[in-house]
Amino acid sequence: MKVIYSIALIFLITISTWAQTPSKRKLRPSDIYRMKDLSDARVSPEGKWVVYVLSRVDSAKDKNISNLWMTSWDATQTLQLTSSDEGESKPEWSPDGKYISFLSSRYESKHNQVWLMDRRGGEGKKITTVKGEIQEYKWSPDGTRIILSVTDTLNYDTSKEKNPKPHVIDRVHFKQDMEGFLDRRHTHLYLLTIET
After folding, report:
1. CB 41 within 8 A of CB 73
2. pLDDT on residue 58
3. Coil, strand or helix: which one is 157?
4. Distance from the CA of 61 to the CA of which of 22, 85, 147, 189 falls in 20 to 30 A?
């Protein structure tokens, strides 16, 4: 059901954006920097709000910047929740609907960490200090814990070495689109108690 709400929200925002186009003109190459991408829409437990990620290209810094936004279901209120250059992703509502969690590598963190913010506003608070890469996370139904899927860190960085180590290929599926060479790192599950 939440997937249907997410698709409906994306459709409505896309239609409203197209409807606001003032006049027709030819597309220019620089217009690609004005395009925005909406993803990870999540409906609040009571069904009155939707939090989502809005991404844009910063041409001066040559990177994508993703921030969290929240809109009411009737589209009468829209609020920007975050504005950091490091970007945020994968927002989730707490089961009681009071908090929004998200992943971010703010403040020069090497890897994404889970952050928690009050849905009414205020600054996010980092609640994890994981050394690996957090791939996914989910709230427990009672809202007291979060389960984390964490991939081990890479033990070496060949890009910084003068004589980089070769990639040892010992299987058929050794490379993946969007990931590059596959390594033998493992993914583990961790249970985080939010209060402690």
Report:
1. no
2. 81
3. coil
4. 22
* Collapsed DSSP state (helix, strand, coil) of residue 131: coil
Helix (H) or strand (E) holding 12: helix 2-19
**98 and 71 in contact (C-beta within 8 Å)?**
no
pLDDT digits (tens, 9 = 90+) for 55-83: 988 878 778 889 999 999 988 999 989 88
Is residue 49 within 8 A of residue 73, CB to CB? The reply is yes
100 neighbors 80 (Cβ within 8 angstroms): no
Please identify which residue in the block is written with the tokens 């939010």. Answer: 194
Q: How many CB atoms lie within 10 A of CB 156?
A: 10
Eight-state DSSP code of residue 110: S
Q: Within 10 A of 181 (CB to CB), how many other CB atoms are there?
A: 11
Task: State residue 52's pLDDT score.
Answer: 94
pTM, rounded to two decimals: 0.74
Exposed, middle or buried: residue 36 (CB in 10 Å: 0-12, 13-18, 19+)? exposed
Query: What does the alpha-carbon distance between residue 174 and residue 166 come to, in Å, rounded to a whole number?
Result: 13
pLDDT tens per residue across span 13-39 = 665 555 555 678 888 888 888 888 889
Tokens (6 digits) for 102: 């998200």
Euclidean distance between CA atoms 100 and 92, whole angstroms: 6
CA angle centred on 193, ends 126 and 137, rounded to 5°: 65
